């Protein structure tokens, strides 16, 4: 109970956490309500639109009650691209971190590829993977890949030398050192990489879904923009924010469980 | 510490144990290449250590005492000479020579018990046996209440108790200690010195203990080996015949202290 309370923070903290969004919405309301034409719809219109998008029953147009489908499509792409990125980046990072030949072979190329923003890959992705979900998937993968890779390399390389000596004098064989020492010691960094990677996957989802897919939160945002349905644009943005926040929270909880031993995470 | 229970002492070495010292360090030297220069960290060090002896290596920094210890541990190889354990050359680190580091070197992701069970498990002992061993040694060092705590939750003295327990749980015959109490406060340090002597006496351990504190060396050791820098070498090997527990305020103790201070002081 006390642990849960500590996790949620004090009432004061909770109050402060909601104070900023409420003030923001108030300012938004004041700026967009009243006489005259506003390009940006007021918060209440967005709330109504969001409700219709989620559950229908208000406008009953093409978008009513479709939020679930779009959100699910985006979630699948985010987690799919993220999972694939983890699958490639984790072993690759461990090899680069542990084996000098692999490092010399791959590290310079990766350093050149890394600064290229995901958006710059968009045209090429569409040529290679075609218009559709595969390009979106690739871009999400790319967004999640580098944070996972770099943090894994860092984690594996920064294991304290003393721990290798301790393991050796306790009888750990050279082959077992990786599983017994390197992997557990680098878990906090790897975990940070995974968390950042998942965050980036959410960040690039809209770009990824600009590749002409039919469903997805990014897809409806782009489509609604062309139709000047700005309420839908904002509803999509809010949904991405909330889903990204929830998924980060879930990962953080998992981290606290797995890394109870680490003073930074426990 | 209370009643201590220890693993049965390992079977005595070869039949010729009576003749063979547990450690025989013969004319050992160590040179490092350092920026194109060769630095002699240790030169022509010889030392015979019998089973059950408590040796303190003492000397100013740069005298090669840690280098010598790390060579016995197998972390460094000798540039010349031979290091023999039970007559066989030391080849790399091994569980028969347990090291206690000044900075503990505990595995932060393992609890106290898991840290102590780590060695037995790494050497292929069944989990249940390793757990029983860990329980015994956790109790021996008085950390039963903290068996499930992680290292970052422990004080320095407690961490060093875990570090000692984990080499004993792993059947170390020789315990190598590199200024193990150097980072602890004076009271904790005194307590641990007493506890170490108790464990040493019961487990027939051989201990090489590196320190730069003269008093600590006289308090603990059967023999104090004095080393000098530039290049590192052994300059004296003094037997401390005082009965234990030793009284640091006693007359003989003070005479020894003066004698060793003189030896160390003449180095500058």
From TrEMBL, chain A:
Residues 71-255 form the ABC transmembrane type-1 domain. Keywords: Cell membrane, Membrane, Transmembrane, Transmembrane helix, Transport. It comes from the Bacteria. It is found in: Cell membrane. The chain crosses the membrane at residues 12-31, 78-100, 112-131, 137-156, 177-194, 200-220, 232-251. It is a multi-pass membrane protein. Gene3D superfamilies: MetI-like. It holds the Pfam family BPD_transp_1. Signal peptide: none annotated. Belongs to the binding-protein-dependent transport system permease family. This is ABC transporter permease. It comes from Belnapia mucosa. The lineage of its organism: Bacteria, Pseudomonadati, Pseudomonadota, Alphaproteobacteria, Acetobacterales.
């Amino acid at each position: 109970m006390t642990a849960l309370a500590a996790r949620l923070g004090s009432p004061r903290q909770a109050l402060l956490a909601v104070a900023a969004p409420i003030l923001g919405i108030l300012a938004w309301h004041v700026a967009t309500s009243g006489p005259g034409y506003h390009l940006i719809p007021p918060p209440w219109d967005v709330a109504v639109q969001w409700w219709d998008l989620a559950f229908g029953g208000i406008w009953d147009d093409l978008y009513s009650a479709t939020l679930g489908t779009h959100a699910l499509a985006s979630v699948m792409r985010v987690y799919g691209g993220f999972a694939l990125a983890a699958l490639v980046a984790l072993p690759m990072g461990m090899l680069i971190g542990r084996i000098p030949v692999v490092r010399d072979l791959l590290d310079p190329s990766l350093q050149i590829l890394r600064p290229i923003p995901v958006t710059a890959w968009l045209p090429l992705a569409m040529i290679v993977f075609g218009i559709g979900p595969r390009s979106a998937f690739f871009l999400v993968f790319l967004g999640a890949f580098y944070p996972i890779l770099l943090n894994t390399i860092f984690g594996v390389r920064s294991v304290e030398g003393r721990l290798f000596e301790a393991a050796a004098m306790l009888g750990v064989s050279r082959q077992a050192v990786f599983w017994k020492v390197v992997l557990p010691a680098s878990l906090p960094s790897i975990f940070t990489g995974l968390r950042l990677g998942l965050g980036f996957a959410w960040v690039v989802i809209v770009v990824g879904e600009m590749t002409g897919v039919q469903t997805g939160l990014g897809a409806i945002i782009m489509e609604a923009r062309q139709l000047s349905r700005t309420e839908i644009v904002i509803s999509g943005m809010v949904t991405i924010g909330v889903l990204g926040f929830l998924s980060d929270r879930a990962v953080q909880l998992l981290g606290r469980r797995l890394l109870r031993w680490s003073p930074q995470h426990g | 510490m209370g009643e201590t229970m220890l693993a049965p002492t390992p079977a005595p070495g070869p039949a010729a144990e009576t003749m063979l010292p547990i450690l025989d360090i013969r004319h050992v030297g160590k040179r490092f290449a350092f920026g194109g220069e060769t630095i002699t960290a240790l030169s022509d060090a010889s030392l015979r250590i019998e089973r059950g002896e408590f040796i303190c290596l003492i000397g100013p920094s740069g005298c090669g005492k840690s280098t010598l210890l790390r060579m016995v541990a197998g972390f460094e190889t000798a540039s010349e000479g031979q290091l023999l354990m039970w007559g066989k050359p030391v080849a790399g680190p091994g569980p028969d020579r347990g090291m206690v580091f000044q900075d503990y070197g505990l595995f932060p992701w393992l609890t106290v018990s898991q840290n102590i069970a780590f060695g037995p498990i790494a050497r292929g002992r069944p989990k249940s046996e390793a757990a029983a061993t860990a329980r015994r040694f956790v109790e021996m060092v008085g950390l039963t209440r903290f068996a499930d705590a992680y290292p970052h939750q422990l004080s320095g003295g407690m961490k060093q108790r875990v570090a000692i327990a984990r080499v004993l749980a792993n059947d170390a015959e020789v315990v190598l200690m590199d200024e193990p109490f150097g980072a602890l406060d004076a009271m904790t340090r005194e307590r641990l010195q007493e506890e170490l002597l108790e464990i040493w006496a019961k487990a027939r351990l051989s201990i090489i203990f590196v320190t730069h504190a003269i008093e600590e060396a006289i308090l603990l050791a059967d023999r104090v080996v004095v080393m000098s820098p530039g290049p590192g070498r052994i300059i004296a090997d003094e037997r401390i015949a005082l009965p234990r527990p030793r009284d640091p305020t006693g007359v003989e103790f003070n005479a020894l202290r003066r004698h060793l201070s003189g030896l160390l002081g003449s180095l500058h």
